[in-house]
Design goal:
alpha/beta, 52% helix, 429 residues, 10 strands, binds zinc ion, two-stranded antiparallel ribbon, TIM Barrel
Length: 429
């Protein structure tokens, strides 16, 4: 396959790059965690699954069906496919070398940042050894094939305590390990986002940005998956989470769909959110009352205060997206998009992933709206193995979005100036 000249892949998960053939190779080993996948499958689809038997019978068609994610679904069903990779992986040094070599072979971009999340069960010592081993493998591959550069982005666990010790471990490794210093360029937060408001990360994000200013040679970009899956709240709250993440200094926002999905997509749907989330939304609207009203978004302070009183019972709130609410939502999203644009944050848009995991039509996808609003956007392939895509195919898919050649070129140029090393202040364009 032809490589695009100097193309940049800025949103890809390393183990999400694996193909079925890679999985079959990995499955030949012993002591794999079949039950991890079996349980995930049963809880998602309500049907029993026996991975060990599929492998013993070499039923590759069934394995492919359990793995590849080619139709629209949701985050949970996607995660079940990813759990197959987890069940078959060991995440040790030998495996990293093998996988990095294979992924680099298939890499169509000249420069790619790969994200990696390790098991929440690891202690600090094991986590640290895995980071070092992975950085070493990426370093070796980048040196042997300088035309296909690879970099490491460590995805931290979303709970605050883990995120803190993992970040601190990375800062120590940067001082003690040359491969980590060269390869590690950013921290990311991925997997389930529901239940983890960005505001809870304010202190950690401020510290990361402060560390970056103090020591630019070790600066790490701040990447954050947000607004991709928001089953637990209103679309407005989900858009607000994206806005808040950008205001907290996040350099690149993963997906940020809630910010710009066509509001009509939600017409006739009913959502629910916790009283805590609704209160946060009310406070936000009151705080930005003036700017929102200037854009034509009605903020009735008296009614909102009355609603606050009612919310003290802690009951969740039901939200019906009727025509009026949908019209209001559009203005609210426009307001949030303006805030994100002004913050300078870059949106990582992964078309195939968004259409399938987000279950969106091209018409409802926010990309054109993002560009119209003047936002900085880069294109990524997310999990090219599971999604059976690559960066070239993602760019070809953009033609179906009705983007002009100039807009597509603009996306490529945005990627060139939005690598983690540039955004964090470590490198100069
Ligand atoms: Zn992702």
């Amino acid at each position: 396959m032809l490589r695009r000249p100097m193309s940049f892949e800025l949103h890809a998960h390393l183990y999400g790059c694996l193909t079925l053939r890679d999985l079959v190779c990995m499955a030949g080993r012993e002591n794999l965690r079949y039950d991890f996948f079996n349980q995930s499958y049963e809880s998602t689809y309500g049907q029993r699954m026996d991975l060990e038997q599929i492998l013993a019978e070499k039923d590759w068609l069934k394995l492919a069906r359990s793995y590849y994610f080619l139709r629209s679904g949701n985050f949970r069903s996607f995660q079940t496919g990813f759990d197959l990779v987890i069940a078959l992986s060991r995440s040790d040094a030998a495996e990293f070398q093998e996988i990095v070599r294979k992924v680099q072979d298939r890499q169509t971009a000249s420069f790619a940042e790969y994200r990696q999340l390790f098991s929440p069960l690891l202690d600090r010592h094991s986590w640290s050894s895995k980071v070092t081993a992975l950085a070493g493998a990426l370093d070796e591959s980048s040196r042997s094939h300088p035309e296909k550069q690879m970099r490491l982005v460590m995805s931290l666990l979303r709970d605050d305590r883990s995120a803190l010790w993992q970040y601190e471990t990375l800062k120590e490794l940067q001082k003690s390990n040359e491969s980590v210093q060269r390869m590690l360029v950013a921290v990311d937060f991925c997997a389930t986002e529901e239940g983890f408001p960005p505001g809870d990360k304010a202190e950690l994000f401020a510290r990361i940005l402060q560390d970056n200013r103090q020591n630019p040679a070790h600066a790490l970009a701040l990447l954050y998956h947000v607004g991709e899956s928001f089953t637990d709240k209103s679309v407005e709250s989900a858009a607000r989470w994206v806005y808040e993440s950008a205001c907290l200094g996040v350099h690149r926002l993963g997906h940020a769909l809630a910010l710009g999905i066509a509001p009509e997509h939600f017409q006739g749907t009913v959502r629910q959110e916790t009283a805590r989330e609704r209160l946060a939304q009310i406070d936000f609207e009151c705080h930005h009352q003036e700017s929102l009203q200037e854009m034509g978004y009605e903020v009735n302070i008296r009614a909102l205060h009355a609603e606050k009183e009612l919310l003290s019972n802690g009951e969740p709130v039901r939200i019906v997206y009727d025509e009026t609410r949908v019209e209001k939502l559009k203005i609210f999203q426009d307001f949030c998009m303006k805030g994100v644009r002004d913050s300078g944050a870059v949106i990582e848009c992964c078309p195939s992933s968004n259409l399938r995991i987000g279950s969106l039509s091209i018409a409802a996808h926010p990309l054109r709206r993002f560009l119209y609003a003047g936002l900085s956007v880069v294109i990524g392939s997310d999990d090219p193995g599971i999604l059976r895509t690559d960066l070239n195919r993602e760019f070809r898919l953009l033609q179906k979005f009705g983007l002009t050649a100039a807009q597509i070129q603009g996306l490529e140029e945005c990627a060139r100036r939005s690598t983690s090393e540039i955004l964090s202040g470590r490198a100069v364009l």
